[in-house]
Design brief:
- By secondary structure, the chain is of the alpha+beta class.
- The protein has a single domain (18-89), classed as Ribosomal protein L7/L12, C-terminal domain/Adaptor protein ClpS (Ribosomal Protein L30, Chain: A, 2-Layer Sandwich), CATH 3.30.1390.
- The protein is built from 3 helices and 5 strands; from the N terminus they run E-E-E-H-H-E-H-E.
- It has helices at residues 32-43, 47-60, 70-82, and strands at residues 2-8, 11-17, 20-25, 62-68, 87-89.
- The protein has a 3-stranded antiparallel sheet.
- Helix 1 crosses helix 2.
- It is elongated and about 55 Å long.
- The two termini are 13 Å apart.
- The model is unreliable at 1-5 (pLDDT under 50).
C-alpha cells in the first residue's frame, strides 16, 4: 500500500493506493515463445526480462510480471487472458 499526497481546497490529503501485481500462471498449452512475445508486447518487457519471467513461470508455477494500481493493470490483464494465457491481479 502506498500513500499519495494531494492538495485540495481543504489542505493536504493522503490517499491510499493499493499496489497490486499482475501474475502470469504456468499452463501446458502456451509455448515459451508465445508467452515471451506476449510479455514484450503487452507489458513492454525487454526480451531478456520476458525470457526470465517465462522461466520463473515454468519452474515456479507463476511470476509477477507487472505491478501498479488495479486500473493500470486491468487492461494488460485483459489482453493477456484474451491471448489464452492464465493471469490474475493479486
Amino acid at each position: 500500500m502506498s500513500k499519495e499526497k494531494t492538495r485540495g481546497s481543504e489542505g493536504t490529503q493522503f490517499l491510499e493506493t493499493q499496489i497490486r501485481e499482475l501474475v502470469v500462471h504456468n499452463d501446458d498449452f502456451n509455448t515459451f515463445d508465445f508467452v515471451i512475445k506476449t510479455l514484450i508486447e503487452v507489458c513492454e518487457h525487454e526480451p531478456e526480462q520476458a525470457e526470465q519471467c517465462t522461466l520463473v513461470i515454468h519452474y515456479n508455477g507463476k511470476c509477477a510480471v507487472n505491478s501498479g494500481d488495479y486500473h493500470s493493470l486491468e487492461p494488460k490483464y485483459r489482453e493477456i487472458i484474451n491471448r489464452g494465457i492464465t493471469a490474475t491481479i493479486e
